[in-house]
Specification:
Blueprint (H helix, E strand, L loop, with lengths): L2 H15 L24 H6 L9 H13 L2 H14 L5 H13 L21 H5 L7 H10 L1 H6 L3 H12 L5 E5 L1 H12 L3 H8 L5 E5 L2 H8 L8 H11 L6 H12 L5 H13 L5 H4 L9 H15 L6 H13 L12 H4 L7
Antiparallel strand pairs: 1-2
Amino acid sequence: MSLSVHVATGFLAGFLLAGGNTSIAQQTFSRFQAAATTPVNLSEVVRNLPEYSQPEQQQRDAYLAAIENATIAERDLALPNLMQWIEDKRPEVRVLALLSLELLYLPSDKRPGSDYRSSYPAQYVPAVAAHLRDPDPAVRKVAFAALQPVQYSGVGLDELIKLVVPMLREPDVLTEYPDPFFIEADKRMLARMTPEQQAQFKAMPPKIIKMPAEGPWLLAILAGPNRQPSNDVDDAMIAFLDREDQTKSTLGDCLHTLELSLASERVNDEALRRVFELKGMTIFLLQFVTQLRLTPEQMTAQRERLVELSNDEAAHPALRRAARDVAACWNGDTHKLCRPSDMDASQQLDTR
């Protein structure tokens, strides 16, 4: 069984069954269970795509099988019709069209090769990228996934970057959602509380932040593996980090995104500096900071900030110990894992 089936099942579980409220990053790739369905080919699925946006198991299985069994030639033939559906007025249809676009460029038995070895033609990139600003949040999430073939193959990447850079400068596009750093931490904390304590905690106002324009997703595109070095793009990323509506958590989310991508040393250094200066460093982030690309001079400066944090009596003891441990290990070798101890990492929810 190929990766695309596992990916497809996870996305469908999140978007079709949960109404699009499940984060892509949090979805579990459940095992695909084939049902006794009448086989359909990709052309038929694309022609009648709205029928497959429903959560019925039989339709979902038929959709998955068509995606899995489509050859490269069949994919290319169906592509123009598929692109028409991404403009459908129904958000669930737009979600499935964009999801299909992403999954069809993953390998399968009929499409062997490495992940995202190729991408759809560059002429389609603007239409897909436009859905990063879709009014429906589920569509925005899956639009980012649909752009991953562009990011990793490099096909149409220059055009995508030209479209994304202005988005970082939009002053009025804000997305309100529960703080991602606290959701899982709160679940673990609730599990250790008495029923009375749980009731008191749940009565408190939820922790809500406003993330500037889904910025970390945009940063991930701009810091992709095939992007050519560009001072103009780096300037846009740094200007985004400088936005006045950035918070400790949003900056931390940006820093986490940059660690998972290939941003320049200058961008990484600026992100780290802002997180430290805003006192937004957490044990969670300390697991990743030593993997960031930095110049020797930048690493020295950031390591000194870690030492300062380890001596900051106002900081949580677990955070101070974690900073000390990471600083002692960090020598610029990004292949060396410098992580907080498991004991301290288990207390990361208390370091906010």
